[in-house]
């Protein structure tokens, strides 16, 4: 299984958290990362996006066909995101467009079996894969990159 965590791009500050939209810079970040993902992700990658406007707009930059998934929203837990994605047993690739701190908490859990959190920059992806090697399941970080590094 491939699990790609994509933090929404830069968003405007605002009163209503769910209605915050991407800034001009955020749209550029999302478009840049979407172009990269199109070139590298498997063709039938399943896309799950938070219901927050900033995540919806980030996901739209990649693909017009995605599922809005409340379980990956701003108040999501590590368990709700992993369950929605089907980690670690689902087939294929799943792209989750979501939020800090939960994406950083998932990264820390998968990499270090830690309850802490890593910082995931706005618009960045962390790409994990899980496979069997010599009869043992292994999780590997394939890539962690921010849009400004593309």
How would you briefly describe this protein structure?
This protein has four helices and six strands; from the N terminus they run βαβαβαβαββ. The protein has 150 residues and is an alpha/beta fold. A six-stranded mixed beta sheet has the order 3-2-4-1-5-6, with helices on both faces.
Keywords:
single chain, globular, 150 residues, Rossmann fold, 6-stranded mixed β-sheet, alpha/beta, 25% strand
General description of the model:
The chain is of the alpha/beta class and 150 residues long. It has one domain: Rossmann fold (3-Layer(aba) Sandwich). The chain contains four helices and six strands. The protein has helices at residues 24-40, 53-62, 78-85, 102-112, and strands spanning 2-7, 46-49, 67-68, 93-98, 125-133, 136-145. It has a six-stranded mixed sheet, with helices on both faces. 37% of the residues are buried.
